[in-house]
Every structure is written in C-alpha cells, then in structure tokens.
Amino acid sequence: MAEPAGPVLVVIPTYQERENLAPIVKRVHASVPEADVLVVDDGSPDGTGELADELAAADERIRVLHRTEKAGLGAAYVAGFALALEGPYQVVVEMDADGSHAPEDLPELLEALESDGGADLVLGSRYVPGGRVVNWPAHRQLLSRGANLYARLALGAPVKDITGGFRAFRRQVLEDLDITTVASTGYCFQVDMAWRAQQAGFRIREVPITFTERELGASKMSVEVMAEALWRIAGWGVSHRLRHVRRALARA
C-alpha cells in the first residue's frame, strides 16, 4: 500500500451507537494502525459519548468531540472536519459507526489517493465493478440505486455512488470547499460534498467496497432525510443548468 501524504484522521459520527463503537474503532486501528480516530457524538442518551471518552483515555490515537444535540449527519461531519483542519492531518476519512463500512477497505481508499496519478477525493463505492451490498432488503437496494440515478440525472454527475458515506479527502479539498457554507444536514450531505468537489475541479475516484447492513442499533434514515435530499438535489441541478444557459447566452 502507498503511504498517505501525511497524518490520517478518521471521523466517525455517532448517535446511539454504544454497541458498535468499540468494535469499529478496533477494526480501524487493525487496518490502519497509524490513523487517529475522531468520534463526534451528538449527545447520545445511550452512553456512546461516555464510552468514547473511555476509549480515548486508553488510546492516544482516539479523540472525542461532544455535541449537545442531534443536529444531523452533515453537521456532525462539518464539525469533525473543522477540528481536523485545526490539526496536522493531511487526509480526512469519513465513515459510519454501525459497521456498514468495513474498515478493512480503508487501506484501498488511502492507496487510491496516491496510486495511478492520485486523487483528491476517493469514494468507497457500492456500484462500481467489485462493489457489493450485503444483507439489504430489495426495497433498500432499489431506494439507494434510485437515489444515485436521480442525483446523476439531476446534476449531470458521473459518479456511480454519490450518496455513499465512506470517503477519503485530501486536506486541500476541505479547505478549498469552505465547509462552513455546507447547510445539508442529512444524507444529502454526501451528494453535496461530492458535487462541490466535482464543480471545483478536484480529482475524484471510486473504489469498490462491501457495504453490509448494520446488525446492531437502528438506521437513522427517515422521511425527513429523504425529503431534504430530493429538494436540495433538485435545486442544485436547476442552478447548474441555469448557469450553463447564462454562459451560453453570454457567448452568443
């Protein structure tokens, strides 16, 4: 595996993930021992934050950011990214705490930043050759594939899995995209960040991963989360096409 260009921070947002947190952090460090882990806990009432503090006290590679309320996945990642940019980290990874993202795939994401000409943003993809989904019912797979198709058509984005949440960013991407302006709170945060990176001209690669449905805890997907994604993506797509029309008219 090619060495990543500088220290790596893995950002893991949590809400009610006490059963999953310790095993996932252990697997991260088994896969990439030199990586630091930042747990961003949104005031979990099940004691996830307290467990994270215990893990951090026993391992200097683990840090914890406590937030007082559940404000959405996107807001948790933005807070984690902002903290990462205060430190020496040159690569920032985002992944779920529920085990759906296999830490064993992490070395391949990091290698893709450096190999074959390199990349600025690497997406762990379920929908490129070699990627797969395990233990999802048919309706969830249909919903996921439909959401990705909708985003690709609305935005004209070539990314196969633009909604996936297992990613590795070079520091420069997070600095240049001005994460303080990201307002997406739910799962459309993933679309938002990839779309911004594409529009800014950053090099994006997808590598295959195995996505496995969580065994413990409850999914955070909701009607509100899906509704936010639908209207935000539609708005981005309309704005994108209007910009193209204005440029064409200006050249005419």
TrEMBL record:
<keyword id="KW-0808">Transferase</keyword>
<feature type="domain" description="Glycosyltransferase 2-like">
    <location>
        <begin position="10"/>
        <end position="177"/>
    </location>
</feature>
<dbReference type="Pfam" id="PF00535">
    <property type="entry name" value="Glycos_transf_2"/>
</dbReference>
<dbReference type="InterPro" id="IPR029044">
    <property type="entry name" value="Nucleotide-diphossugar_trans"/>
</dbReference>
<comment type="similarity">
    <text>Belongs to the glycosyltransferase 2 family.</text>
</comment>
<protein>
    <submittedName>
        <fullName>Polyprenol monophosphomannose synthase</fullName>
    </submittedName>
</protein>
<dbReference type="InterPro" id="IPR039528">
    <property type="entry name" value="DPM1-like"/>
</dbReference>
<dbReference type="InterPro" id="IPR001173">
    <property type="entry name" value="Glyco_trans_2-like"/>
</dbReference>
<keyword id="KW-0328">Glycosyltransferase</keyword>
